[in-house]
Amino acid sequence: MTKTAAGRAETESHSASQAITRVLVVDDSKVQRKILSASLGRWGFEVMQAASGEEALALCRMHRIDMVLSDWMMPGMSGLDLCRAFRGLGSDDYGYFILLTSKSGKCEIAEGLDGGADDFLTKPVNGGELRARIAAGERILRMQRELKEKNRLIGQTLDDMHALNRLMDRDLIEARKLQQSLLRERSRDFGPASVSLLLRPCGHVGGDLVGVFPIDRRHIGVFGIDVSGHGIASALMTARLAGFLSASSPGQNVALIKGADGGYRGRAPAEVAARLNALTLEEMDTENYFTLIYGEVELTTGKVRMVQAGHPSPAVQRSGGRVEFVGDGGMPVGLLATAQFEEFEFYLGPGDRLLLYSDGVTECATSRRGMVEETGLVDIMNRNRGVRGVAMLEAMVWDLGERACDSEFADDISAVLVEFHGPGPRGDSD
User: Fold this and answer.
1) CATH for the stretch 182-420
2) Sequence-distant contacts of 107-113: CB under 8 A, at least 24 apart
3) How far apart are CA 172 and CA 268, in angstroms?
4) Which fold is adopted by the domain 5-152?
5) Which residues have C-beta within 8 Å of that of residue 153, sequence separation ≥ 6?
6) pTM of the model
7) CB of 357 within 8 A of CB of 348?
8) Cα end-to-end distance, the chain, whole Å
9) pLDDT at site 168
10) Cβ neighbours of residue 244 under 8 Å, at least 6 residues apart?
11) Are 348 and 420 in contact (CB under 8 A)?
């Protein structure tokens, strides 16, 4: 588990206070080692000594060394060779290396820096200067180790976040499956009319919902909903709304009224919108609202009674190919308790079809820096005039993808396609 903020602060503070604890003094002169070690001991450091570069390197392999003070000129392995070997050990913690030398030329200093030395002290070593150089090394090591600790904590936090993201992805994938299960059937044949459904969220889950349900032997209800926003909150709200317009639980469907004989009849579309508006404001503690298109289709006559609450205007494609847009907008559901919802009517003839769609269709951004809009939808419907059912909706998505400026849609896409055949050979509701 991730450490608490207090625990992290304590770790960082401990790391900073323990920036330097052990110093290795390397010199072939026993007197020089003793002088340097005495000073370092008085300043509170743990001191180790080595009489040669080879002995020092062996100690570095066995112990964590925070700082090395090494004479440059020594028999065998020189201080500069020791510095190069020290850097080659690949320790997790950086070690500060100070060369003690009588050399002061620019070429020698450049050679020392190139070999990995951090600082230089001229022999004989002055105590005050030694303390100042040690303090400078302490500051650098403290900053380096604080940075390392912060990077470790950042890495740990990122690992925790990745683990959480993986869990969220799994949960969202399951949520997507559950949301898709709200569409128990992608198409349904009612005899005089066939209904096909499309639900494609732009992310794992979305805020769109479509559906169809029988009202009685002569009528069916169709609807499209688009909840404001995206993601989990919108998806949860669509799940709640699905229960209010359920095909499998007519007793909970706000569009249905149970009669004395046990059967059901339809509630007026405007009243359906009003009841959903009241339920949203009274029972759902949310800032989300939604647009709605709900219609009652009479199978025997093709008459459609519809309410539009902020949803895009439905498209009616006549049997001859001409496309008409019906409705005049209206107020979304869940914004105002005093909102009024108006109905409108039109008729479908044999061969006509009705398309209810979300604004993800007409507001789909195109590669020409515009949107598909109603004109583009008309073109898509005409291009796919001979395609029926679910295949027509899939073709619409394909055409939108070809027009889109990005490989992924920026908004949920949903649609309901009602194809009216008219009473006759395909069946009569009577």
Assistant:
1) 3.60.40.10
2) 111/80, 112/72, 112/80, 112/83
3) 36
4) Rossmann fold (3.40.50)
5) 3, 8, 11
6) 0.63
7) no
8) 66
9) 65
10) 252, 253, 254, 276, 279
11) yes
Question: Can you name the residues that pair with 222 across neighbouring β-strands?
Answer: 212, 295
What is the layout of strands, in order, in the sheet containing 187-189? 187-189, 193-200, 413-420, 353-357, 315-317, 323-325
Q: Which residue has the tokens 């070999």?
A: 115
* Cβ contact 57:16 at 8 Å: no
Find out whether 76 and 52 touch, Cβ atoms under 8 Å. yes
Residue that is written with structure tokens 């030398």 in the block: 101
Q: What is the pLDDT of residues 383-407, one digit of tens each?
A: 999 999 999 999 999 999 888 866 6
For residues 60 and 35, is the Cβ–Cβ distance under 8 A? no
Cα 275 vs. chain centroid, distance in angstroms? 35
pLDDT at 205 (0 to 100): 61
Sketch the domain layout of the chain as residue ranges. 5-152, 182-420
Give me the sign of the Cα torsion angle 33, 38, 39, 41: positive
Closest by Cα among 270, 297, 271 to 195: 297
Question: Are the CB atoms for 397 and 343 separated by under 8 Å?
Answer: no
φ, ψ for residue 415 (rounded to 5)? -160, 155
Structure tokens at 64: 């964590």
223-255 tens-digit pLDDT: 999 998 766 777 778 888 888 998 888 889 999
Rounded to whole angstroms, how far apart are CA atoms 324 and 378? 9
Q: What is the pLDDT of residues 321-335, one digit of tens each?
A: 999 999 988 999 999
- 113 Cα distance to chain centroid: 47
The tokens describing 14, both together, are 């401990």
What amino acid is encoded at 124 in this protein?
P
Locate 371 and state its tokens. 């949107």
